[in-house]
Write a structure and sequence with these properties.
single chain, alpha/beta, Isopropylmalate Dehydrogenase
Amino acid sequence: MSAKAVLPIAVDAMGGDRAPGEIVAGALQAARELGVPVLLVGDPACFAELEAHPAVSYEFASEAVAMDEDPSRAVRLKRDSSLAHCAQAVREGRASAMVSAGNTGAAMANALLRIGRLRHVARPAIATPIPVPGSRPTVLIDSGANVDCTPQMLVQFAQMGSAMAVERFGVAEPRVGLLSIGEEPSKGNALVKEAHALLAAGAAGPQVRFIGNVEGRDVMSDRVDVVVTDGFTGNVVLKTLEGGVKAVVGGVLSALAGPEVKEAAKAVVPALTPLATELDPDTYGGAVLLGVAGVCVISHGSSGARAIVNAIRVAHHAVSEKLLERVEAAISAIGEGTGRPASALS
């Protein structure tokens, strides 16, 4: 991968449970191995001992947003935070994208305040790739940005998630499902039923291939490419899957650790390693906040250097492949086939 003449990726060096050490290490590794220019933003003390690299530049910020800090308060009062600087760098055209493993709500608030939304977007949403062993990941949207949603917002999530599946995972005609408690259109709460009616009627436009309701068991299957839900449900699904995968992997490793299965483990563990890597959230780097007028990648709070490398890879790819343009085109086309203007559902 070559950086060519692209703008750097702004990385929040102070965000995350393992900041700044792992974040800085990942950013430097990305600059070396991927050839992607990086703008590291944070406390000057974090950069004092680092060797100069032609693809790495620095911007100092006097404040950091804590993981448990109230997002609205942080965006109002901490105007010199590393998150604010990253978002401002994107807005001013000094960076092509921003990456943060810090406070998700504060990252979204800063992106909205300083970068702004795409035209016609009601609310941005977090699109998280969910690993599917042996197949392409499923895009889960929204996975935590919007706790309360309207049916119209879910229609926009379907559009944005579909565009994401095309751009990032090369799916020609993504299958879009609506998360519910049953496949039948009559199943679900009022939000799901109303959203189903809109999507089934083509409210998302001809570019969205709606296949109806899907259930929780389908998220990690090859039955669907994009799963649409509200941010509250999506975040519960995401954390449940993470916990379930971690428990299963831990259980398998524990079972293989006993002396009575030592010889069998020598053969089994190497065979399981690729699967463990495929299921590891660090492999995917982070989730893209879709709907803002700039590329914003939100990484897991526990991200280490490897996750940050992959998050920067995701951000660089989104910029190179013009993900924003795809998303904006999808949203703007909402009226096609429905007779309604693009703003009617926003």
